[in-house]
Design goal:
Structural class: mainly alpha
Number of strands: 0
Oligomer: single chain
Strand content: under 5%
Shape: elongated
Distance between the termini: 41 Å
Radius of gyration: 14 Å
Largest sheet: none
Number of domains: 1
Number of helices: 3
Length: 89
């Protein structure tokens, strides 16, 4: 696995984990918390990319991280909408 991919995947995994946590802990307010998750993912992206201290490909890595997280959270939004507001039904 290349170092570029290793710097992008934690952001996507973080988005998945946070979407699941939103479903478990705040199913009634999921659509309020998912934008907060996106803001956290953006901050996580910049922390990871700036910690690398590599100028080459910064814009590509940031775009891939945030773009992938947007797709992950869009799919999570669709799933949460389809499942309804509560876990028990």
């Amino acid at each position: 696995m290349s170092w570029e991919l290793r710097s992008i995947l934690p952001t996507w995994i973080g988005a998945v984990v946070c979407a699941v946590l939103v479903r478990v802990f705040a199913p009634d307010a999921a659509f309020t918390w998912l934008p907060v998750v996106m803001a956290g993912v953006i901050l996580l992206t910049f922390v990871i990319q700036l910690a690398l201290q590599r100028k080459e490909g910064l814009v590509s890595r940031v775009a891939a991280s945030i773009g992938g997280a947007v797709v992950v959270l869009a799919v999570a939004t669709g799933i949460l909408w389809a499942l309804g507001p509560t876990i028990a039904g």
